[in-house]
Design goal:
Length: 424
């Protein structure tokens, strides 16, 4: 009869019929060929001579089959909040013998829409377990749920209009105790003179200024009114660089820094310092792109995509937005590294993905990297992005002719690259 692969050699026995009483006749069975692995093989049976009986003139032969053993691949169930990055898909495999494993592992996929709550299917396919096994697949479930916070917060936030600039908040309503983030955007030639938040009973609400120039406050049990005043800079219209004593007129970065300051994409590191040669962090770059996209409300300060992104930080909402839209993917260890200095190739990769998200034709078939002596040091994931960025004139070589892909991108470099990107 048919046998199932077990990883061990098969054996066979045969008996003779037609014997009388206690007479015996030994029969030998030989399995021809492979008797371990799955397949169809032959056997031969011969009987030893016995003078009292007439034995078959020919060897008795036939076929036997070792069928593949079944391996069951089960896609594991996953859960996530709507708007977060898709969880890593995993599977379990049952049925292998000993150290046996896949020659080609299963491919996992899902039809889940990460921006919509619901139950979706995770499927596995494409596995090659080798000729000794057959595969069956069991699908899994992807459960997407909304964040467990109220969809309509309790109290309103109103912002009074002001001449010379504007203030925006990351939400128009908020529940008591939640963090509210204010972004101040002076017009060209103006600077912030005063900013205050007032509660229902007229009490002043404390504002905290972050490193990125934004202000935060805790929502009280009542409505809040925001008022700002702006004044012209002492140097007059169009001279935003002059307020920073570490910026030189006519320097290579002048146009780029003027561009980002006018649009509120970047701020100084203090009242009179811009720090053009200081490194730019990954959190800063993502926050700038978030501002360029109109500061969409995303997660309302909640986190969950990366293990090292706390809730209600100045960069939290920007990072969650970027991850959900495929603009950032983070490190292999599940972290994002918001405070890590960004490298030139990381900046190119993030900007490349943002361009694709924004609907630009972020692709070039030309080879633009061969001219750089350090092109071989570019990380493989960043090659398409840097090829595009160099081809579009967003990134150019250093003074020594190198591309310096692993070098840290300074604030002045980031400002110039962003200005060039906005001109595409």
């Amino acid at each position: 009869g048919d046998l199932v692969y077990s990883g061990t050699a098969k054996t066979a026995t045969a008996t003779a019929t037609g014997l009388i009483g206690s007479d015996q006749c030994a029969v030998t069975v030989v399995l021809v060929g492979d008797n371990v692995n799955a397949g169809t093989f032959t056997y031969k049976a011969t009987a030893l001579s016995n003078a009292n009986y007439k034995l078959p003139a020919n060897v008795v032969s036939g076929e036997y089959t070792i069928t593949p053993k079944t391996v069951t691949v089960t896609a594991e169930d996953k859960e996530a909040y709507a708007g977060n990055q898709q969880p890593t898909l995993t599977y379990t495999a049952a049925g292998f013998i000993g150290e046996d494993t896949f020659a080609v592992e299963p491919v996992l996929s899902t039809d889940a829409n990460m921006n919509a709550a619901g139950e979706y299917t995770i499927t596995a396919s494409g596995a090659d377990p080798g000729s000794n096994y057959a595969v069956t697949y069991v699908p899994g479930k992807m459960i997407i749920t909304n964040y467990p916070y109220a969809s309509v917060p309790d109290y309103a936030i109103t912002i009074a209009s002001a001449q010379g600039g504007k203030v925006t908040a990351n939400k128009i309503n908020a529940s008591q105790g939640s963090n509210v983030i204010l972004t101040v955007s002076p017009n060209s030639g103006y600077e912030l003179k005063g900013l205050k938040a007032t509660g229902n009973n007229g009490t002043s609400i404390a504002l905290t200024k972050g490193a990125d120039g934004k202000y935060t406050f805790k929502m009280p049990a009542g409505n809040v009114k925001i008022e700002a005043s702006f004044a012209k800079t002492s140097a007059g219209e169009g001279s935003l660089l002059q307020k920073f004593r570490d910026l030189k007129p006519g320097a290579w970065y002048e146009e780029g820094i003027q561009f980002v300051l006018e649009r509120g994409l970047m701020n100084g590191t203090s009242e009179d310092l811009f720090s053009p040669n200081a490194p730019t962090t990954r959190g800063m770059i993502v926050t700038i792109l978030w501002r360029m996209d109109g500061e969409p409300v995303y997660g309302q300060g909640k986190s969950g995509t990366f293990v090292d992104v706390p809730e209600y930080q100045w960069y939290t909402e920007a990072v969650e937005w970027a991850a959900a839209n495929g603009i950032v993917t983070g490190y292999a260890n599940g972290k994002f590294g918001a405070e890590d200095n960004i490298t030139r190739e990381q900046l190119a990769a993030i900007l490349f993905r943002y361009a694709q998200y924004a609907g630009l034709e972020a692709l070039t078939m030309e080879e633009n990297l061969e001219a750089f002596p350090d092109a071989d040091s570019i990380s493989s994931y960043a090659i398409p992005a840097l090829n595009w960025a160099v081809g579009q004139g967003l990134i150019s070589g250093m003074g020594d002719g190198s591309l310096d892909p692993a070098g840290e991108a300074t604030r002045a470099q980031a400002a110039t690259i962003l200005m060039r990107y906005c001109g595409l």
